[in-house]
Amino acid sequence: MDIQAHLNGIGTIRKGKDYCVFRVKPLKQVAELIKFFDQYPLITQKKADYILFKEIAMIMQRREHLTTSGLQEIINLRASLNLGLSDKLKAAFPKTIPANKPKVENQRIPHPQWVAGFSTAEGCFSVGFSNDRFKYLSFKLTQHSRDEQLMVSFIEFWGCG
Question: Which residues are registered as beta bridge partners of 113?
Answer without folding.
Answer: none
